[in-house]
Amino acid sequence: MKLRILSVILLSTLTTAAFSQSLQVTGGDSLLLLEDINPLEAPAAEVYIRNVSGQFKTVKVTKEVLSLQAGHDAYFCWGGTCFGPATNVSPNDIPIDADVVDSSFKAYVMPNGIAGISDVRYCFQVNGNPSDQTCFRVRHAFGTTSVIPDEPSERLTAVQAVYDAGSQTIHVDVVGGKIDVMNMLGQSVSLSFRYDGGGMSADASTLKTGYYFLFGRNEKGPWSARVVVSKQ
Question: What DSSP letter does each residue of 58-87 carry, written as one string?
Answer without folding.
Answer: EEEEEEEEEE--TT-EEEEEETTEEE-TT-
